[in-house]
Amino acid sequence: MKVCVIGTGYVGLVTGACLARIGHQVICVDNNEAKVKLMQAGQSPIYEPGLAEILQQCIAEQRIEFTTDLQAGVNHGDILFIAVGTPALPNGKSDTRYVEAVARGIGEHLNGGYKVIVNKSTVPIGSGNWVERLILDGLKKTHSALTAVGAEVPASDGGKIAEPGSPALPEFDVVSNPEFLREGSAVYDTFNPDRIVLGGNSDRAIALMQQLYDPLVRREFSDDSEASPVPVVVTDLASAEMIKYAANSFLATKISFINEVANICDRVGADVVQVARGIGLDSRIGDKFLQAGIGWGGSCFPKDVSALVNTAEDYGYEAPLLRSAVEVNQKQHFVVVEKLQQILKILNGKTVGLLGLTFKPDTDDMRDAPSLKLIEKLTMLGVKVKAFDPILSQSGQSHTLANVLIESDVERLAEGCDALVLVTDWQQFQTLNYPRLAALMTHAILVDGRNFLDRSTLEAAGFHYTGVGH
Questions:
Q1: 183 is in an annotated binding site
Q2: Is 300 tagged catalytic?
Q3: Residue 385: enclosing H or E segment and its boundaries?
Q4: 317-to-151, 245, 311, 312 alpha-carbon distances in Å
Q5: What predicted TM-score, i.e. pTM, was given to this entire model?
Q6: Residue 42 to residues 20, 28, 84, 363, Cα–Cα distance (Å)
Q7: Residue 297 in marked binding region
């Protein structure tokens, strides 16, 4: 099938590359010329395991191409994905101006032939109908201008539009197809989805989407090709949009819950790691997202929970549980600061090294990373902050970070530090030469903000070790 993906951020680029990998013909559109040239050369602008290899393979096999020409993408695609960003505004609502611009642009460039327009961006509930109206506005604007000068406009039935207002506009339908990709595992998640959600009111559009995803549903590219077919949830537009927000809000709430339990464990002498294991074995609860630590961040959880709270407000509901999940998470970012104060007492004049900066491992994404809040708080308390991150320390992206000295290796990080804080649970941090790091430090203290490291190993290396509720 012919596919156009508009927007090449995490979602758009992974979606486009993986759809090309399973056999579709894909054009990705982005208005950033430098980024497009980079992708045309087979280089990924983002760090995502496995993505660069898929890009290079699909470019070599001529199944994917990149352009800044929206008209070319619209002409090519039978299915058009809107995958631009919807960042959070200061008031917590989603910034949908990029979606609006793309929807209007699609409408202005539609020129015949049935199209399915897919909302892949995380958009406020009710956006499916809004996007449809914007596309129609763009369509009517272009076609009115053409007919006003007597131009022949192709119509969906092969005829001509004789005058402005003619009903024979190109046919399209809007579908909501939310993504559930985890940064750092996005390629794996695309080929091994838990479910595929399709929201719409057109049987024709849903049938085309099912055809598009058929290789994934049948697990042709899955790590477990013998598993049952991927469940496909077919529903209305609003419910599909709500599924995305509800899923992320539930997971965020689950993390805030176990962090609150961890804070109680710290006070009563219980071990949250064992508590999480004990409750996670309950099939009604499950063990995922029960890892206590310094809280959630990234591009999805903060934005999506805030957007759902704002949607509730718009319709006269306060959503107190979701508000509490956000409040617990905001406080949790500073738990390690409290632990440093308990151990070191006065922090003014001390040096603290951060192991990891990104909001999670296997990504270079710093959006709403807990490390940013931590750096801000420690700096305010007079701490000299150093950091090492396996990706950012090597990529040069860290130059935009204020009030932190980025070191090129962990030994330079440890040298002269009064404490280390594990912020991001990169796998390689489990196998560092901790005896050597302890010897380089002024005080061999390590606060494990993810309960990721082995206490006995750290203590044998000479560290004073403390976790979160652990």
A1: yes
A2: yes
A3: strand 384-388
A4: 51, 16, 9, 5
A5: 0.89
A6: 14, 13, 21, 19
A7: yes
